[in-house]
Write a structure and sequence with these properties.
The protein has 346 residues and is α+β, with helices and mostly antiparallel strands. The chain is built from three helices and 17 strands. β11 and β12 form a beta hairpin.
Length: 346
Amino acid sequence: MTLRSALAGAALAVAMSGAAQAAQINGWYIGLEGGANWIDDWNHSFFALDAEATLDTGWVALGTVGYGWDGFRLEFEGGYRDNDLESYSIVGVPVAGVSADVWEASFMANVLYDLGLTDDLSLSLGAGAGGDFANVDLSFGGPVSFEDDNWSFAYQGIAGLSYAVGRQTSLFVNYRYLRIVDAEFDFRPGAAVFLTNGDDVVKHSATIGLRYALYAPSVMSDMTPTPPPPEPATGSAPRQFIVFFGFNKYNLTSEALRVISEAVVAAKDTGSATVLITGHTDTVGSNTYNMRLSMRRSNAVKSEMVRQGIPASAISSNGKGETELLVQTADGVKEPQNRRATIDLN
């Protein structure tokens, strides 16, 4: 397996996926990824002499099983890495004829947070800890080789970008910084070679992969709808205005600003004594998270109305979460018309 083949496989999967819609990870998922692996030069002791091992670029394959909620993910990761020795030196002098193959199996528990950049693109940041099992097959020339393996504690940092290519499928790239603590290998009694007290082993990996959510949400169109024209009261200006939001967003779009400006003009023209702003969400996410999101939406609208000249004392804002849907849906459905804030003039 090479990085080139991993890239080709991922590109083929994207081509076959067809039209894509964003899918937030809420529930169980699985992932597969592969790519390149680099190991920093390892400084260690050789018969109490300073030695350094340089390894060439290898490959890595990883599989994950996890659970997502409200932007967080808890996952379990199994990995396999393989690298060959490129050069070996003792007290700065290169040693000829030394070769080695290093393969490692890692088992990690990770916690990550997905920060939405757009409806389809997200930035992932996380960390993990677990164990690393390393096997070293060492040869100093000739047919004789020596082998040792070792379990060590390991921890890592993870950063990546993920793009939704289907209702349940995401294409992602990841970078991992993996540190193996107190790596030690002892090849005695087969040879009088004793490698110990080495520095921590630091590994870097760049991978590309696919993640699949093990649930099938009924995903509606994710485009922010054009607000329906408010129904005017007889002989008066409109008394309710509706502002729509993107998925998991509370920022104001240009269309939202236009609607708010109309509401401000109407409030000033009619001399409205009070303004009531109510935020709402769709059914994706927990009740607690959606309640907070609905409040952020109503407060965003309130701040803009105050900026445009409506006294803050005349505005009341609240959030209803997913309790008062404009379009009735099942749980986990991304319905654009439910992602809204209403402005009522009284």
